[in-house]
Specification:
Elements: H1 2-14, H2 27-40, H3 46-49, E1 52-55, E2 58-61, E3 66-69, E4 72-74, H4 78-89, E5 94-95, H5 97-105, H6 115-127, E6 137-140, E7 144-147
Antiparallel strand pairs: 1-2, 2-3, 3-4, 5-7, 6-7
Length: 152
């Protein structure tokens, strides 16, 4: 009954519901109400949606998938960006080639596949002041790569 629906609505709102939609409902109205709730939530602000990490002059915006040095964007492919994020997530810890490929592709690469070295060299070309003397992405011979915690 209508009286029962009103009681359900009041109880639901008293128990902490953000909104109540009686049946039958229009799916577009449901979607509009969900969007309105999300606009009011903690993820509504642009700052909350961005996952920005700073390492000295290097800024890694994972939400926008952008890398900047001194505010200037540096181009990276999707795979190179994912590799850089994986390295930055483990800053200060050595990651083997297998661990890196597992993190970005969800699987280990072939034992003789050294394509990761090419990607790392291209990342260095984009983010290092001197790619021949890297200070951000450092090779640890026989072990893998480490992203420097302290930079610049």
């Amino acid at each position: 009954t209508a009286r029962g629906e009103d009681a359900d609505r009041i109880v639901g709102l008293e128990l902490g519901a953000d909104d109540y939609l009686a049946k039958p409902f229009n799916p577009r109205e449901l979607l509009a109400r969900v969007r309105a709730v999300l606009r009011r939530g903690p993820l509504a602000s642009p700052e909350a949606r961005r996952d920005v990490r700073r390492f000295g002059r290097l800024e890694l915006d994972c939400g926008a998938r952008v890398v900047r040095i001194d505010g200037e964007e540096r181009p990276l492919t999707a795979l190179q960006f994912d590799l850089l994020c994986a390295l930055a997530d483990s800053a200060g810890r050595v990651l083997s080639r297998d661990a890196l490929m597992d993190r970005v592709r969800g699987r280990a690469h072939e034992a003789f596949d050294r394509s990761i070295d090419v990607h790392v060299s291209r990342i260095r070309a984009a983010i290092e002041d001197d790619p021949k003397k890297p200070r951000r992405v450092i090779t640890v011979r026989g072990a893998g790569y480490v992203f420097a915690k302290v930079q610049d």
